[in-house]
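Forum > Structural Biology > Help requests

Title: Can anyone predict the 3D structure of YhfH family protein?

Hi all, first post here. I have the sequence for YhfH family protein but no way to get a structure on my laptop. I'd be grateful if someone could post the structure tokens.
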Amino acid sequence: MQMISPVQFFKSLPPKQCTECGDNIVEQAESYLLECDRCLSKKDE
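Reply #1:
Sure, ran it for you. Structure tokens for YhfH family protein below:
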């Protein structure tokens, strides 16, 4: 079994998708958000 580096592992993950609208979430490291900024801003209204 060949081991891959942690960097390669995280680069191979698919982008996280918003649970509300399904758009890809642009996030920073260690983000635990499940919704995009647009959907989160709608909840504040």
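The two ends are 51 Å apart (CA to CA). The longest helix spans residues 37-44.
Shout if anything looks off.
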